[in-house]
């Protein structure tokens, strides 16, 4: 059963440089109990999509339904069943961690007693005891994020939206948060998550929608997407960067297309049809030519490769502040 | 579908009870803020003391008329509570900046409740300010010459006006989106607004243009109302002949009603369409 459904969503912002199509006909269909990642660079429209689905902004065209409820026609009914954690920790700085969660519980109308009980549970579950009784003001970004995420889980919602949940977190906090999210999903929550980290989408989601320019440009499981750009890659790491040109020649001859050379001219790689065979030939020829290697191997394509192939640009080189500018221009 | 294990459906109580509960929770949050941000309390306590003392002691001597302190006090009360209303503007802008508005807007709460909680917060701050000012005023010789009901009525009129004004500032805060800009703008607008009035000097001494502005300035009607209720009117400081000052109560109630009727719906509409960043 489809629990999150979007059809032809459009949202246009007027910016100094002209109209920006933040959403340009976005379609989504997410089955109940699954995890969908919206993957795309900054400014691709991920946050705008989440804001429309969570009733924060109205689309200019198209429809969106959450558990069958239209987000524009009955936002309050939608808000009763969803949990949301945005890109920035939306916590009250002057309240303690506990008070923040109690407030959210009371605003979900759980009743004062149940709200407090739930806040205590979450404080424990998220190991926030330290932040429980002090104003949030003095805490690190990671701690705020956890309080914010706990806030999204107060009603243990059927449907959870997480907008770039780990952006700006250190690797340790990121791993910890992944653990929390995986547990949740195991309990049957439907999750829509946005990320610009390919690894994150791969780790957490059942299904990925690649977004660029406000619409979905590819959809499928991580494996399906990887399969779309073909088989393996052969990659070698050079001892001497001076060998890059001849190595690239060798790889291009055995590969499916031109070899690519990394910025420091030490890593050379190429997409190949038959991985093991290509690797054997490449290694033999490089050995004969006396090229010294630090490392050589065959790897499956990453989502990074997928993204590059689909959009013509890398996921990370997004237009950093476009989103912010767009929002401010309203 | 039933949802994940441990799913807690939201929503106990009827719509009206939920609305009251939301309003209280939002108010509670703003009261905690007063307690936890020392700057607010310092502003709330020290500034009124400073204004009462500065004006009554520095100006009072130069005025060389009897009863200046009596005359002045309602003016200082009015100015202080109007400045107190700017907290709502700065706080709404700050909440937008912090993203907490987005959290509220994804919860099944009443949108009006956030604003009611905020304006109630101002009311609390202004009530504290009033207490402090009245105490300080008492110490420098201010007296209410009517009755307890006159006194209570004067306080009520001042707080009512400032409460309505909080809604104006809240809309400004949500539109401007920058707490710093709100504070500066408030200063630029509110200083002339409170000075070009009968708050500190009688209007009849002003040049014509200023006099007309002062007569129609709602702050003048507010101050005149409070003076009449406190029994602080004197022949040395006659109220102007303009309709607004001859009927200060009607003017103030019309003004308060107009502010609420216009700005409460505008604020709610604005709130329902804003989102952080």
TrEMBL record, chain B:
Example GO biological process: response to antibiotic
Domain of life: Bacteria
Domain ABC transmembrane type-2: 39-274
Keyword check for Transmembrane helix: yes
A cellular component annotation (GO) from this entry: ATP-binding cassette (ABC) transporter complex
Main location: membrane
Bilayer-spanning residue ranges: 40-59, 71-93, 123-142, 148-169, 181-201, 249-268
Membrane topology annotation: Multi-pass membrane protein
Keyword Membrane attached: yes
GO MF entry, a single one: ABC-type transporter activity
Compartments, record wording: Cell membrane; Membrane
UniProt entry keywords in alphabetical sequence: Antibiotic resistance, Cell membrane, Membrane, Transmembrane, Transmembrane helix, Transport
Family affiliation: Belongs to the ABC-2 integral membrane protein family.
Protein name stated in the entry: Transport permease protein
Species the sequence originates in: Arthrobacter mobilis
């Amino acid at each position: 059963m489809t629990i999150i459904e979007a059809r032809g969503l459009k949202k246009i912002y007027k910016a100094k440089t002209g109209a920006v199509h933040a959403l340009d006909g976005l379609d989504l269909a997410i089955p109940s109990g699954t995890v969908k990642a919206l993957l795309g660079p900054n400014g691709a429209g991920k946050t705008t999509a989440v804001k429309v689905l969570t009733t924060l902004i109205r689309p200019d065209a198209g429809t969106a339904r959450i558990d069958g409820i239209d987000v524009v026609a009955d936002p309050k009914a939608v808000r009763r069943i969803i949990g949301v954690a945005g890109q920035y920790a939306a916590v009250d700085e002057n309240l303690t961690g506990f008070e923040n969660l109690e407030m959210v519980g009371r605003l979900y109308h759980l009743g004062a007693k149940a709200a407090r009980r739930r806040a205590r549970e979450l404080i424990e579950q998220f190991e926030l005891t330290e932040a429980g009784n002090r104003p949030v003001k003095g805490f690190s970004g990671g701690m705020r994020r956890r309080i914010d995420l706990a806030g999204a889980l107060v009603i243990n919602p059927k449907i959870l939206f997480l907008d770039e949940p780990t952006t700006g977190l250190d690797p340790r906090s990121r791993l910890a948060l992944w653990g929390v999210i995986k547990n949740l999903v195991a309990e049957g929550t439907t999750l829509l998550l946005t990320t610009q980290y390919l690894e994150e989408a791969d780790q957490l989601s059942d299904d990925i929608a690649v977004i660029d320019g406000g619409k979905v440009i590819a959809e499928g499981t991580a494996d399906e997407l990887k399969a779309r750009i073909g088989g393996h890659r052969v990659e070698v790491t050079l001892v001497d960067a001076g060998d890059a040109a001849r190595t690239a020649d060798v790889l291009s001859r055995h590969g499916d297309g031109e070899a690519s050379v990394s910025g420091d001219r030490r890593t050379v790689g190429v997409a190949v049809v038959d991985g093991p065979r290509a690797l054997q030939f490449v290694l033999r020829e490089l050995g004969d030519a006396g090229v010294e290697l630090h490392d050589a191997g065959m790897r499956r394509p990453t989502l990074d490769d997928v993204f590059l192939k689909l959009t013509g640009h890398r996921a990370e080189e997004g237009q950093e502040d476009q989103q912010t500018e767009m929002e401010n221009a309203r | 579908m039933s949802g994940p294990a441990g799913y807690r459906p939201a929503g106990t109580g009827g719509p009206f009870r939920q609305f009251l509960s939301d309003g209280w929770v939002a108010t509670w949050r703003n009261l905690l803020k007063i307690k936890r941000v020392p700057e607010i309390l310092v502003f709330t306590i020290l500034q009124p003391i400073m204004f009462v003392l500065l004006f009554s002691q520095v100006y009072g001597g130069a005025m060389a008329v009897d009863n200046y302190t009596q005359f002045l006090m309602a003016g200082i009360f009015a100015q202080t509570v109007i400045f107190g209303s700017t907290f709502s503007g700065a706080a709404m802008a700050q909440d937008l900046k912090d993203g907490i508005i987005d959290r509220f807007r994804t919860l099944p709460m009443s949108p009006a409740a956030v604003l009611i909680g905020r304006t109630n917060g101002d009311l609390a701050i202004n009530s504290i300010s009033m207490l402090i000012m009245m105490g300080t005023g008492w110490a420098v010789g201010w007296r209410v010459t009517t009755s307890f009901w006159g006194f209570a009525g004067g306080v009520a009129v001042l707080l009512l006006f400032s409460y309505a004004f909080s809604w104006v500032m809240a809309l400004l805060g949500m539109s401007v989106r920058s707490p710093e800009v709100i504070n500066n703008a408030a200063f630029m607008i509110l200083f002339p607004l409170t000075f070009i009035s009968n708050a500190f000097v009688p209007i009849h001494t002003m040049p014509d243009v200023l006099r007309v502005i002062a007569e129609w300035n709602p702050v003048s009607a507010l101050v005149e109302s409070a003076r009449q209720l406190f029994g602080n009117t004197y022949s040395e400081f006659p109220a102007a002949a303009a309709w607004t000052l001859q009927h200060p109560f009607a003017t103030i109630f019309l003004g308060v009603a107009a502010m609420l009727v216009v700005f409460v719906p505008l604020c709610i509409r604005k709130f329902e369409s804003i989102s952080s960043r």
